[in-house]
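go over this:
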Amino acid sequence: MITVTFDTQSLRTHRRQPLVFSLATLRRLSGDAQLFRISTTTSSTGLIAATAYHAAESTLGYRDFHYFLDEANLSAVLLTTPANQAAVERLFTYAKAHQLFSEH
């Protein structure tokens, strides 16, 4: 079973946590490398890249920023690491090759 592991920080608990997904269970991937949603046979998770998170945080006011996070239904911040960058590339490549990718 091929898996993809992301090093993330939970938006709820603010703790670092790994998120592991089996590519065999992937049903849909939408978005782009900065903000994307992974839907599998058992769950759906929204991730935002740390750079996008910090840009939104510094641009929006406190209330608007938290509204944005809730409306986008995000679960975690994708930490900026070479391993995460490789995992994102692997995930998007797999999803596109298997017609599981949507930009929206």
